[in-house]
Structure formats: C-alpha cells, structure tokens
Amino acid sequence: MVSVLLLVGILVAVFVGYNVGGATTGPAFGPAVGADAISKTAAGVLMTVFFFVGAWTIGRRVVDTLGRELVRDPGVFTLEASIGVLFFIGAALFIGNFFGVPASTSMTAVGSIAGLGLAAGELNVAVMGEIAIWWVVSPFIGFWVSLIIGRYFYSALNRRLAMVRSEGPLYRLDQSRRVPVPVPTDTTNWRELGGVAMVIVIGCLMAFSSGTSNIANAVAPLVGSGQLAMNPAIVIGCAAVGIGTVTIARRTLETMGNDLTELPLTAAIVTATVSASLVIFLSAIGIPASFVIIATMCIIGLGWGRATRPITVADAVRGEESVPLSVDALTADEEGETLPPIGGEDPERIPSASDLFDPATTARVVLMQNIVPVIATGGAYATFRFVPIFGL
Amino acid sequence: MVSRVLVPMEDSEMSDRALEYALEVYPDAEITVLHVVGEPSQMWGHATGIALADDLEDAAEEHANAVFDRAREIVADASGDVDLETAIEFGHPARAIINRAGDYETVVIGTHSGSIANRIFVGNVAEKVFRSSPVPVVVVR
C-alpha cells in the first residue's frame, strides 16, 4: 500500500519535473535556437546536462530549505501531503503554460508547503520570513543592475554584440579525424563564432541556474517525507526534466509564446545573465528564487533605463541615437488627475519611450505575477486544514 | 454634427466592428484610427523590446502598420472615400486613448476581446475609456 503511494508521489514529481523542463528550455535556449546556433535537440540535451549539474551541486541546498527547514517537523510531509503539495505545484505550472500567466514555480512551491505547515501548525516563520525578504530584495537588485546597464552601457554593448549571420552553415563536422569535431566553415567569421558561442554559453548558464532553484520544486516534498533520499531524488527529477526538454520544449521553442523572445538579442543576453546570476546566488544561500519576477524586473529596468538615458550631443548629432522627445512624460499624466477640457490639451503631444513605463501599470504586472502563488498558498492551507485525508 | 471621431484599434474583430460602425454612423466625419503600441505584457518584453529599438518611431510603425492596413481595407470595403487619419501612442492602451480623446468629439471603441492573460495584465480597456473619457464614448459590441 505504502509503495503504491510512493510510486504515485514519484509520478507526480516526474510530472512536475517534466513541465519544468518544458517551461524553462524556451527562455534559456530560445535565443540560441532562434539564431540557428544549435538544433532543438542539442538545446534539450544541453539544458538537461546543465540542469543536472546545477541541481547536483547547489540545488540540494534549496531542497533542504523546502523539504527540511520550512516546516519545523518534516513529519508533516506524509506521503499523502507530499502528493498534495506536488499537485499544487503541478497545477500552477499548468495554469502558467495554458493561460499564459507566468507563475513562479518556486514561489508556488514555497506557498503550498507554507500552507501545509500553517495547517499543521508547523510552519517555521523565521525561514519563511527570510525567504520572503529575499523575494522582495532580489527583484530590486535585478532592476537596478539592469537599469544601470540600460541607461549607460546598452548602446555600447549592442554595437559590440551586433551579430550578423553569414550565409551558409556555421560549422561542419570534420570527418577526417578520429573523432568528428565541428569546425567553422569558410563562410563563418570569428566575430560571428564568438557571438554564437556566447549565446550558447548563456543558455547553459540559464540551464544551470534553473537546476539550482527548480529541482527542489519537483522533489523537495518527497525528500522531506524521508521516503526518498536526496541523491536518487535529484537523479529522478533531472531525468524527468530531461524528458520535458526534448518533448514539450520543442513546442515552446517553436511557438515562442514567451514574452522574452520579443526582446532584441542583446537585451535577452543581459536579462539572462543578470537574472541567472541572481538565481544562482540565492540558491547558493538556500533561498528558492523566483526567476519570473526577477527576469521581469530586469526587463523593466533595462527598458526604462534605456528610455530615460542621457544622450551625448555627439551621439545625437551623428544621428546614432534618436533623441527622446520628452523626458517628463512619465509624470505628465497622473491617475486621477483632472483631464484638460476638450481641445485644451496640446494636440501635438509627442509620444516618448518613457510612456512605455508607467509605474502603476508596471506595478500591476508584477503584482499579477504573484496571483498563482497566492492562490496556491490559500488553496493548500484550506485543503490541508479541512480535508482529512492527508494523515496530519 | 460630429466631425472628429477617434477609433482606437488593436488587432481584433471587435475593433474592426468599431471602425465599421463609425463609418456607418458618422459618414461625414474625419476619422482617426489610433493604435497603441508597447502595451503591458506578461514579462514586459513587448514594451522593452520597443524601448530598446534604435529608432523608436520606426519600431512603433512596424507594429502599427498591420492594424492601419486592416483599417484602410475596412474603409475600402465600406466603399467610402473617407480620409483616414492614423495615430500611434505608447504605453497603456486605456491611458493613451484617454490622453488623446480630448481632441475629438466622440470615441468609438470595440469591447475588449483579449485573452485571460491580457485581461489580467492590461485590464478592460473599453471600460476604462468609457469611465474616464472627457468626450462621449460609443462602445461597439
């Protein structure tokens, strides 16, 4: 009987891992596949390998936090309760993928486990508080770093990274050697090769960071329950992620439904580097990080920094930069302000880039990203509190 | 006699109907089609993508031209020889439309027909315009 339950638990964990693999390959390797640098299969394989490395090295710290520290008594992770928690995480992933409302898997996982802990009266408030503080601080770090990059360095970066793909394939397999190795074809120039290599390396960095923070979402409840040891759990979780990366990820790579792909390549690289670094740092100190919110704040910071950038006269004269037409547009229209009478407003109101970053609207978007985790927390609490089948 | 009409349009059937309605009811009016680019999206990628473009206006036009072409088709189909004005604004659709509305006598807008994600991140644009517009609003459904 118990073994059947454990099997169900593992199956649900595999389902979560499978969806994580599907959902994270797009953001990580979308730019590389889009630039024809690697095939989708190669993206899936690289994703799996680096996810595993991240999970095995740093990811276990987050598993510890979620499975053993967030609740004072890991005994609350009965197999039934673990399956319940995994179910909430899986449901959040499904909603995110299906309705296009990105939801942080890590926040949902913490929320569901906190709901469980609260219902059982075993929530470790100190650990929860520490996690919550980092959730507030880390997006702001991402925002400021990206803001500075967007305002002062983006133009230069963009010029340096401008990647012009030449005609013809990037490399061919040299069959004359004992082990076939890819060598650049005649049409490939060094700059192009460097650009391609960088896009792939950053994809691997993203995959690594995803492994450090996401493995816990799939296996922490089972590890917490004591039914599955850490190492086998990580291996099983990564295998499930691997299946996701070569199956459903093909579709997410194809449809490019991800908002990240609307960004120019340089911006995607900056966002990926900044947010992956933050996620790895948080995982290293055992904090489950929310990639979605960190990345969103990075994107907003980058765009807003760029929209409000100072422009040197030389740049403007040379025509290398389009001059922002109005710098105070951000404050021009406050909510609730009485509107000018008919015809009273200057008809030549010139739109400017800073109109794209209305503070109230950006705040709304970031708040809305918390909807799914909040619902999961409430749902988990209510379920574990009032439905008496979890052996609490 | 209404002579200046603003028709905010996005790429949707509802905004097509709004333009058809405006052409039918205000045949003699000067109609301006407004398209708002850089609206809020799940991870703000759309707006930032535009903000990062080298030439903001080019990037905006690239996004807006599909909508304007569709609008001209609708005018042609209605066999009207109406002179269509076009305008582009940035940012949140409701706010941008309300900012512009003061220059016109009437706003004709389609009910919002966005996806769930769109509802969550952008909200109901027609409703917001209807509530805060300084001029009369016709909501077409």
Structure, described:
The complex is a heterodimer of chains A (392) and B (141). Chain A is built from 13 helices and 2 strands, in the order H-H-H-H-H-E-E-H-H-H-H-H-H-H-H. Chain A is mainly α. Chain A has one domain (2-326, 348-386). Chain A has a two-stranded antiparallel ribbon. The two termini of chain A are 18 Å apart. Mean pLDDT of chain A is 84; it is low at 321-337 and 339-348. With 141 residues, chain B is α/β, with parallel strands linked by helices. In chain B, 47% of the residues lie in helices and 21% in strands. Chain B is built from 6 helices and 5 strands, in the order E-H-E-H-H-E-H-E-H-H-E. A 5-stranded parallel beta sheet of chain B has the order 3-2-1-4-5, sandwiched between helices. The chains are: A mainly alpha (392), B alpha/beta (141). The interface between A and B is large, with 52 and 42 residues.
Work out the strand percent of chain A: under 5%
CATH H-level superfamily title of chain B:
HUPs
The CATH level-2 architecture of chain B is identified as: 3-Layer(aba) Sandwich
Largest sheet of chain B: 5 strands, parallel
Q: Give the termini distance of chain A in whole angstroms.
A: 18 Å
- Helix coverage percent of chain B: 40-55%
Mean pLDDT of chain B: 88
Number of helices of chain A: 13
Q: Please trace the helix and strand order of chain B, writing H or E for each element.
A: EHEHHEHEHHE
Instruction: Give the helix/strand class of chain A.
Output: mainly alpha
* Whole-number count of domains of chain A: 1
Uncertain spans of chain B: none
Shape of chain A: globular
Mean pLDDT of chain A: 84
Sheet-strand content of chain B, in percent, reads 15-25%
Helix-strand pattern of chain A: HHHHHEEHHHHHHHH
Number of strands of chain A: 2
